[in-house]
UniProtKB/TrEMBL annotation:
Residues 180-282 form the Alcohol dehydrogenase-like C-terminal domain. This is Enoyl reductase (ER) domain-containing protein. Keywords: Metal-binding, Oxidoreductase, Zinc. The keyword Repeat does not apply. One of its GO terms (molecular function) is oxidoreductase activity. Pfam families: ADH_N, ADH_zinc_N. Residues 35-139 form the Alcohol dehydrogenase-like N-terminal domain. Its cofactor is Zn(2+). The keyword ATP-binding does not apply. Belongs to the zinc-containing alcohol dehydrogenase family. It comes from marine metagenome. Transmembrane segments: none annotated. PROSITE patterns: ADH_ZINC.
Length: 290
């Protein structure tokens, strides 16, 4: 690695679940392996799945301690052998989904004299060694704060609508939870001319944002009978699509109950470890999809 390039970085480290992250200096790899890219991270998002990782929602973490973050924006400082799709000085979005280029070996950072685990992309650090296929160039004049959303929230939300729900013009959709991903589900549903687009959340400020990006109906489920409110809008037939971003078993069950006989329920939120979702499975044999 060029001697002018950084040899260390400040990073937020997950040392123990359900405890605050440790911010400390971490040693960067001494050289870039095939397909690796050194990026100066300008902005990072924090996804609900990262919060779940910190809180141990999926159970015990076998890779502690490790770095975090899978959506960000930055500038390429150097590239390793074989890298063709990004170059030094490129402005890039960092993302968790595979893109173009090599999937490299995961980098090995050093912390307190020992190896520190990391995945193909991390963004809770000032400098990151990222796999080429987790970096996508964007125009240099991009708003880099907004660009972080293309790393997860926007692409996940739009992907749910286009690839998982396969929502089409005129179909109805209920979005349970309108945080970062839910808002992008709403926006994508509006862009394909779904109707109605029903946003559900506990907080009025989120519901207002959902209205701004295309929701046609808003339900604050903290002070309403959610099932009755959905039925009042859609009638007894239910929705074509329900997308759950909460991971709460009761919301998943409600989604199944409030979709049409051949409707689709897309689970985006992850239920906590040990959670159980009870369902009547017969409709799944006759066209309903989960």
């Amino acid at each position: 690695m060029n001697k002018q390039l950084p040899r260390a970085t400040k990073a937020a480290i997950l040392v123990e679940q359900r405890q605050p992250l440790v911010v400390d200096e971490v040693g960067l790899p001494e050289s870039l392996d095939v397909g690796q890219v050194l990026v100066r991270v300008h902005y990072s998002g924090i996804c609900g799945s990262q919060l779940g990782e910190i809180d141990g929602v999926k159970g015990e973490d076998q890779f502690l301690p490790h770095l975090l973050g899978h959506e960000g924006s930055g500038t390429v400082l150097a590239v390793g052998p074989g890298v063709l799709h990004v170059a030094p000085d490129d402005t890039v979005v960092l993302h968790w989904r595979r893109g173009l280029g090599i999937q490299s070996a995961t980098p090995v950072y050093r912390w307190n004299g020992t190896a520190l685990n990391a995945g193909w992309v991390t963004t809770f650090n000032e400098y990151a060694v990222v796999s080429e296929n987790r970096c996508t160039p964007v125009p240099p004049n991009s708003d880099l704060q907004v660009a972080t959303l293309f790393g997860c929230a926007a692409t996940t939300g739009f992907g749910v609508v286009e690839n998982d729900a396969r929502l089409r013009i005129g179909e109805s959709i209920v979005v349970l939870g309108v945080g970062g991903i839910g808002l992008n589900v709403v926006q994508a549903a509006s862009l394909v001319s779904a109707y109605p687009v029903i946003a559900v959340d506990l907080f009025d400020n989120r519901l207002e944002l959902a209205r701004q990006v295309g929701a046609t109906h808003l339900i604050n489920s903290s002070n309403a009978d959610l099932g009755q409110e959905i039925q009042a809008i859609l009638g007894t037939s239910g929705a074509d699509v329900v997308v759950d971003t909460t991971g709460l078993p009761e919301m998943i069950q409600l989604g199944l109950a409030r979709t049409k006989p051949q409707g689709r329920v897309v689970m985006v939120g992850v239920p906590g470890a040990g959670s159980q979702v009870g369902l009547f499975s017969l409709p799944l044999h006759f066209g309903k999809k989960l």
